[in-house]
Amino acid sequence: MITADIVKRWAEEAGFLACGITDLAPNAHADALDRWLAAGYGGTMRYIHRQARKRKNPALADQEARSAVVVLDSYYYDDSDQNATPPKVAKYARGKDYHDTMGRRLEQLAERLRSAGATHTRCYVDAGPIPERELARRAGLGWIGKNAMLIRPGVGSFFFIGEILTDLELALDVPVETDHCGTCTRCIDACPTDAIVEPRVVDATRCISYLTIEQKGPIPDDLATKMDGWVFGCDICNDVCPWNVRFAAGQGEQGEQGEQGEHGGRKLLAAIERMNEHDFEVHFAGTPFSRPGLAGMRRNMKAARTER
Ligand code: B12
Ligand code: SF4
Ligand code: SF4
Fold it and tell me: Which of 15, 34, 135, 155 is the most buried (most CB within 10 A)?
């Protein structure tokens, strides 16, 4: 009989930072999602509205599943030298697309679950109607910081969250209910666009990550002047967090690829302004830059140069 401890050992062997187990009970913070959507903080990400029912009640996302095996996958590496000057790229985006790299390892873990008797497994990383931070909190993996990130004591927050929904019935972990932020407000104070409108609430339409990746059309001037040189994603509210300053260490799979500097490389980034679609495809196919595409990346480079 497969136990939760065995699943966690397999997750570790697959290279994940941590693994926790929860069920598919209704989201205890469904009201937070409703308020966020009603305030318009999701901007043009209409898919979150469409998925809201499932995000509030994950059992609706997969009626055959009984447990969620939630894993964390580090994307940390020390890029303090690279990110001192623009153009800046968020750590998570310097390698290949994590949906593929992490998704592959999740699928390998799912294969082991099937070999141990699971008849149903479904893997998710980022894409899908799953409230990933909430599931991870409930699986005992961390707390929700004032920057809205899931933060793990002794680790920080530079990791992706992924999950396998399965029909295996596994022992559940104890949800994290403690807030370890205390009186700290560093993330809120450091956010250049004032996107953290209250603790744990990010107005995505002001967040540099949204502006450089999800925004359709030009970036409004009042926000472009505050982008601080970021051209894809933003690490500020994670970089300043004392839990990362103190504990972030090691190097995740994304970091390894990023260090090769392939598409994080400065020369290549600068060359985006002169590239045609074919060259962009050659250099950036299969990387997170394909989401905004050539036109989006050019727009970001231009916005990041806007003077305050
Ligand atoms: C939409 C989205 C965005 C949007 C909006 C972000 C946001 N804060 O809502 C934008 C484009 C701005 C964005 C940016 C980033 N994102 Co994003 N994003 C998502 C996505 C697809 C959905 C998030 C969502 O539903 N937002 C709506 C809000 C209301 O929901 P929520 O943030 O999940 O919050 C829940 C909990 O916090 C809880 N809750 C709320 N209040 C309270 C209060 C208490 C006391 C408690 C306990 C809980 C609680 O209830 C909420 C609803 O369930 C998730 C993947 C997924 N499927 O969940 C990734 C995800 C959240 N993103 C991720 C990452 C890495 C980032 C960036 C760091 C990328 C970057 N470097 O640029 C930034 C960080 C910005 C930030 N500070 O949040 C990771 C986060 C990992 C982690 N450690 O938390 C995720 C989980 C993707 C993944 N699979 O790894 N993202
Ligand atoms: S990712 Fe950057 S812009 Fe978005 S909330 Fe954090 S500090 Fe602000
Ligand atoms: S910077 Fe401070 S307030 Fe923000 S998430 Fe980290 S500990 Fe919490």
Answer: 135
Q: What distance in Å separates the CA atoms of residue 70 and residue 54, rounded to the nearest whole number?
A: 17
Ligand 3 atom at minimal distance to the Cα of residue 199: 3
Residues 155-212 have pLDDT tens digits of 999 999 999 999 999 999 999 999 999 999 999 999 999 999 999 999 999 999 999 9
CB-count exposure of residue 229 (10 Å: 0-12, 13-18, 19+): middle
Give me the residue label for tokens 């990110």: 83
Tokens of 249: 């260490």
| Assigned token pair, 52 | 């809201």
CA distance 7 to 166: 12
Nearest to 212 by CA among 195, 192, 234, 193: 234
The residues, any chain, with a CB within 8 Å of residue 287's CB and separated by 6 or more, are 93, 95, 96, 97, 263
Look at the block and give the residue holding tokens 């601080």. 228
Spans of the chain, pLDDT less than 50: 259-260
N-to-C CA span, the chain: 62
The active-site residue out of 31, 34, 126, 179 is 126
What's the CA-to-centroid distance between 126 and ligand 1, angstroms? 9
Half-sphere exposure of 51 (CA within 13 A, CB side): 18
Residue 108, amino acid: Q
Using DSSP's 3-state secondary structure scheme, residue 197 falls into: strand
Our answer on whether the CB atom of 106 is closer than 6 Å to any ligand 3 atom is no
Query: Is the shortest distance between the CB of 238 and ligand 3 below 6 Å?
Result: no
Task: Please report where in the chains the tokens 């916005």 appear, as a residue.
Answer: 303
Residue 88 to residues 93, 97, 216, 231, 287, Cα–Cα distance (Å) = 11, 17, 20, 6, 16
Q: Can you spell out the DSSP letters for 72-126?
A: EEE-----TTGGGSSSEE-GGGSSS-HHHHHHHHHHHHHHHHHHTT-S-EEEEES
The rounded distance, in Å, linking the Cα atoms of 80 and 85 is 10
d(CA 40, CA 217): 18
